[in-house]
Amino acid sequence: MKNIKTDFLIVGSGLYGCVIAERIATILKKKVIIIEKRNHIGGNCYSEIDKETGIEFHKYGTHIFHTSKKNVWNYLKKFTSLNNYKHQVLSNYKSKVYQMPINLETINKFFNQKLNPVKAELFLKKKTKKFIKKNPDNFEEKALMQIGKELYTAFIKGYTEKQWGKDPKKLPSSIFNRLPIRFNYNKTYFKNADVEGIPSNGYTEVFKKLTSNPLISIIYNKSFNLKQKYMVNKAIIYTGPLDKLLNYKFGQLEWRSVKFKKKVLNRRDYQGTSVMNFPEKKIKFTRIHEPRHLHTDRNYKDKTLIIKEFPELNSNEPYYPINDKKNRLIHSKYKNYLTKNYKNLITGGRLADYAYYDMDMTISAALKKFEFIKKKLK
Ligand SMILES: Cc1cc2nc3c(=O)[nH]c(=O)nc-3n(C[C@H](O)[C@H](O)[C@H](O)COP(=O)(O)OP(=O)(O)OC[C@H]3O[C@@H](n4cnc5c(N)ncnc54)[C@H](O)[C@@H]3O)c2cc1C
Asked: How far is the CA of 357 from the centre of ligand 1 (A)?
């Protein structure tokens, strides 16, 4: 490792790191070395083929690409086409299956009604009237204001308690903004996506293409730290967590994590959809993924793969940032310290920014950071 000599060193082979690597090699024609602590490329977007069933699955949770950002799709389409998958989420409550986000079908089925859109809105208004508040203080207050007690208790409360490991009264109201309510039968999950689907040949193929330039090389199973000495002409781009990089000197950032349990079943189809929510608290997992439904164009065998998702608090396997005031303050201390003391270190990506980014946001941020690098370091 002592002999590593490069123009740019990138830490992390996730989407952020690989997009920047591709841009540097293609546009600036500079040498890039990527260091990755895992034994594979792709970060959390990584996909692989299950040996027993031949089904391609996403090791770190089902990933659906969707965007309304033109520049992101213009960039990504150079490396992949998308299949025709359109995401839909269903929720299994007391063994009955409902549409998520809540729509007219959910309302009518749950309350055993035959309401049209106008009547459904009035019906729900009556249920939410007593919870209306100008400034809801927390997640629960906001949810009750919008969907009332019955729908909240069935579909949201237990799910949220499992997902975040916290009483919804202790979560910020802003999290509830992400759940739309529809008084029509629209069941598409990503309402504003102009482009949506799964890479036709899987995510891992996209990453292989992104890094196919001979100026890029990847070293796997290697964890970066600041004590290691590298001969880097231009800059180090670090996409890992900042607290770990600085040995937790300002405290540890909290993350919500998930564990996945895989099982092969001797039947063609288990649940008829790619993701099913299980909102009841007494069921320990939050979702069942069935990845065969992500690639309906493929000729899979008469066996299926299901993956149960169990949330847990584990800051060493970071998935979702606990984006509260305390953690944001800790994060800003790390960021300021690094900016001041490490001039040739650039940070970015979901781990370094302590943020939840969809894939299109990650690509967009990486393309912007590349423009900055081009101007400053060419
Ligand atoms: C459960 C889940 C589901 C998701 N589903 C979707 C979805 O459906 N649609 C969507 O658009 N987005 C989805 N996302 C978001 C998507 O995963 C992210 O946008 C994307 O992975 C961010 O890429 P990244 O490069 O910033 O981070 P990562 O993918 O985490 O990559 C960072 C890489 O850096 C490596 N690394 C870290 N520290 C070090 C170190 N010290 N030394 C060496 N290597 C290091 C890590 O091993 C990792 O490979 C989902 C996220 C989660 C958690």
From this structure: 9
Average pLDDT over residues 293-308: 95
**CB within 8 A of 7, min separation 6: which ones?**
24, 28, 30, 31, 32, 232, 233, 234
Check residue 172 and give its pLDDT: 82
Our answer to whether residue 38 is catalytic in this structure is: no
Which amino acid does the sequence have at 213? N
185 is catalytic: no
Beta bridge partners of 288: 276, 308
Q: Give nearest CA residue, ligand 1 atom 7.
A: 63
- The answer on pLDDT for 1 being more than 60 is no
Task: Identify the active-site residue in 23, 256, 292, 350.
Answer: 256
Task: Write down the catalytic residue from 141, 254, 309, 353.
Answer: 309
| Residues in CB range of 45: below 8 A, 6 or more apart | 14, 15, 58, 60, 63, 203, 206, 207, 359
Q: Which two tokens stand for residue 231?
A: 């001969």
Amino acid (1-letter code) at residue 221: N
Domain count, the chain: 2
Based on the domain organization, do 154 and 239 belong to the same domain? no
Catalytic: which of 121, 161, 205, 358? Answer: 358
Atom of ligand 1 nearest to the CA of 38: 47
pLDDT at 178: 65
Residue nearest to atom 15 of ligand 1 (CA): 358
- The pLDDT tens digits of the residues spanning 70-126 come to 999 999 999 999 999 999 999 999 999 999 999 999 999 999 999 999 999 999 999
23, 238, 243, 287: the active-site residue = 287
Closest C-alpha to ligand 1, atom 52: 319
Would you state the pLDDT for residue 378?
63
Widest CA span of the chain, in angstroms? Answer: 72
Give the per-residue pLDDT at 171.
87
Q: pLDDT tens across 178-231, in order? A: 667 899 999 888 888 899 999 999 999 999 999 999 999 999 999 999 988 889
Q: Do 25 and 157 fall within a single domain?
A: no
Nearest ligand 1 atom to alpha carbon 64: 8
Domain of 358? 5-41+211-248+321-377
CATH number at residue 19: 3.40.50.720
Task: Find out whether the beta carbon of 353 lies less than 6 Å from any atom of ligand 1.
Answer: no
